[in-house]
């Protein structure tokens, strides 16, 4: 049996103050808060999901905001950089917008693409790159018009402790195609139309340490529960031990640690974020899984109040 993932489903990171997190990803980057819920393993902590107007797989970045947590170190065993796709011709708009919010950025080049590199307020490394594929994101917020809006993930840069073994996994097990190679990076491409390019950094970045400003894991797409179970068996056939299926309310998940020490997840596209909210009101209310509903009052008292708000540019 040979299998192929469509590409990235979501990326999950650790950040600090929850309101700062919401302000940056909605106000500055123009993403939509599609779901506010909790960390199922730590119900006193939010779990935020940001993406396009309905949280399409391949557009979703998620966060565990822990105010006062120690700062992490980006390095081997992590997703080092999260890369977003913007429409052709939009990079100058984004350079001006980031500057207007006093977000330092620089232009770099990788695989012949001009890239805008910057960090969020908690140190997470981000990039914007123009891609010709135009998707259906029509979300517009706080001065980001839909024709300039982030379309979803272009991909990610993996900082692996064993780059050759991570490359083998992507190509020979997960079905990505080796697309290009430079001195410092190897690029792989999946068959999806978003979240479809993954670059592996060849040289060590030093040992990573989990904390604020680092990616916790990267999730890959499975069509449905049946496909996910096939993935679990297929991974085990190839020497990777995956967890039992974990229900995550809006998708189901399995996890495994690849040989470069990066935590991988395989998440189902179904059922999505519309199972408990209408499209027009996504992200408006705190949503809890049914097993936490009896504790709602206690949980809401633990969580710092947040709001999605349009704020002026920084002076």
UniProtKB/TrEMBL annotation:
Q: Where is the VOC domain?
A: 7-131, 152-269
Q: What is this protein called?
A: Glyoxalase family protein
Which Pfam families does its entry note? Glyoxalase
Domain of life of the organism encoding this protein: Bacteria
Which InterPro entries does this chain map to?
Extradiol_RC_dioxygenase (IPR052537), Glyas_Bleomycin-R_OHBP_Dase (IPR029068), Glyas_Fos-R_dOase_dom (IPR004360), VOC_core (IPR037523)
């Amino acid at each position: 049996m040979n299998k192929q993932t469509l590409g990235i489903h979501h990326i999950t990171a650790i950040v600090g103050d929850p309101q700062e997190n919401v302000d940056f990803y909605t106000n500055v980057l123009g993403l939509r808060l599609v779901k506010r819920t909790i960390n199922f393993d730590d119900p006193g902590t939010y779990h935020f999901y940001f993406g396009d107007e309905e949280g399409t797989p391949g557009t979703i970045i998620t966060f565990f905001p822990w105010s006062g947590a120690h700062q992490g170190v980006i390095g081997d065993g992590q997703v080092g950089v999260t890369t977003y796709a913007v429409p052709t011709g939009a990079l100058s708009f984004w350079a001006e917008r980031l500057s207007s919010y006093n977000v330092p950025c620089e232009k770099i080049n990788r695989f012949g693409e001009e890239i805008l590199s910057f960090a969020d307020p908690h140190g997470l490394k981000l990039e914007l790159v123009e891609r010709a594929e135009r998707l259906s994101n029509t979300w517009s917020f706080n001065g980001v018009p839909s024709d300039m809006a982030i379309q979803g993930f272009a991909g990610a840069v993996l900082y692996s402790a064993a780059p050759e073994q991570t490359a083998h996994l992507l190509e020979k097990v997960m079905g990505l195609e080796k697309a290009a190679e430079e001195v410092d990076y190897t690029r792989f491409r999946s068959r999806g139309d978003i979240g479809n390019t993954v670059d592996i950094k060849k040289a060590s970045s030093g040992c990573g340490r989990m904390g604020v400003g680092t990616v916790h894991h990267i999730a890959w797409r499975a069509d449905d529960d049946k496909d996910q179970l096939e993935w679990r068996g297929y991974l085990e056939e190839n020497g990777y031990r995956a967890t039992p299926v974990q229900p995550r309310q809006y998708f189901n998940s399995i996890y495994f640690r690849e040989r470069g020490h990066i935590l991988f997840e395989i998440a189902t596209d179904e059922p999505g974020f519309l199972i408990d909210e209408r499209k027009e009101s996504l992200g408006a209310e705190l949503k809890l899984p049914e097993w936490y509903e009896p504790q709602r009052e206690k949980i809401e008292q633990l969580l710092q109040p947040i709001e999605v708000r349009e704020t002026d540019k920084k002076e």
